[in-house]
């Protein structure tokens, strides 16, 4: 399917009720169709991997089109420049997270982008760095404990960023690392216990929220077994 054909198919699935829900979650709906993720995954399965179509589809600027791009683009064909281009186009937390989780984390450049994007002044590019860290805990099986410990300085450095979508991503990264295994759980709890004494409200919230989940009995039981 061409990008134009895919876009026409997306328009068929427009759901105005979902658009209202998206707006409540802080997502711009001017160029959105209100299509759910399960429906997009179904379309992605029908289309299959098509990197050229993804590149062209991204240019349309439509919300769900860009999420679909993250599902049909080919990680091995992504370049650092194209990753930067797409990241700089992010205008919502869900497009950011879907791109990181479905696509960017599988590229050879994911670590490079974590350490590059975390210093970005753009809210959603910076979020991308921490969304990638969170995605690593699931998708990069080759990473060991030491690899994840290297992310703690980034979490500490940016825990004072009070922008909502950055703050929540930093928190997400910390929680995901702390749920990876028992060793990292202990380290993440120790880290959060120190961070909770930070005077910055964002850092304090990140620490308290992470501690609430990481010390939860269900998490502790799962990690022990």
Structural notes for this entry:
By secondary structure, the chain is an all-alpha fold. It is globular, with a radius of gyration of 18 Å. The chain folds into two domains: 1-73, no CATH class; 92-225, Serine Threonine Protein Phosphatase 5, Tetratricopeptide repeat (Alpha Horseshoe). It has helices at residues 3-12, 16-24, 37-47, 51-58, 63-72, 80-89, 93-102, 110-117, 123-139, 145-149, 152-158, 164-178, 182-195, 201-214, 217-224. The protein contains 15 helices and no strands. The mean pLDDT is 96.
Structure at a glance:
This protein has 225 residues and is mostly helical.
Query: How many DSSP E strands?
Result: 0
Mean pLDDT: 96
Structural class: mainly alpha
Order of H and E elements: HHHHHHHHHHHHHHH
* Beta-strand content bin: under 5%
How far is it from the N-terminal to the C-terminal residue, by CA?
46 Å
CATH architecture of the largest domain: Alpha Horseshoe
Please give the domain count.
2
CATH topology of the largest domain: Serine Threonine Protein Phosphatase 5, Tetratricopeptide repeat
Question: Oligomerization state of this entry?
Answer: single chain
The CATH class label of the largest domain is: Mainly Alpha
Largest sheet: none
Helical proportion, percent range = 55-70%
Unreliable sequence segments: none
Judging from the principal axes of the Cα atoms, what is the shape?
Answer: globular
Radius of gyration: 18 Å
Helix segment tally? 15
């Amino acid at each position: 399917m061409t990008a134009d054909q895919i876009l026409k198919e997306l328009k068929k699935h427009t759901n105005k009720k979902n658009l209202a829900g998206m707006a409540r979650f802080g997502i711009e709906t001017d160029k959105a169709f209100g299509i759910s993720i399960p429906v997009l995954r179904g379309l992605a399965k029908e289309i299959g991997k098509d990197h050229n179509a993804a590149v062209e589809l991204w240019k349309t600027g439509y919300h769900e089109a860009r999420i679909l791009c993250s599902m049909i683009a080919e990680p091995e064909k992504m370049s650092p420049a194209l990753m930067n281009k797409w990241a700089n186009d992010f205008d919502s937390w869900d497009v950011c997270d879907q791109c990181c989780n479905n696509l960017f984390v599988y590229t050879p450049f994911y670590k490079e982008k974590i350490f590059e994007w975390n210093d970005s002044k753009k809210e959603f590019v910076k979020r991308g760095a921490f969304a990638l860290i969170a995605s690593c805990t699931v998708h990069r099986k080759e990473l060991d404990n030491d690899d994840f410990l290297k992310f703690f300085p980034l979490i500490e450095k940016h825990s004072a960023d009070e922008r909502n979508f950055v703050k929540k991503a930093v928190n997400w990264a910390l929680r995901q690392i702390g749920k990876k295994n028992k060793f990292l759980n202990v380290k993440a709890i120790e880290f959060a216990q120190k961070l909770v004494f930070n005077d910055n409200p964002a850092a304090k919230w990140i620490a308290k929220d992470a501690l609430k989940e990481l010390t939860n009995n269900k998490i502790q039981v799962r990690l022990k077994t």
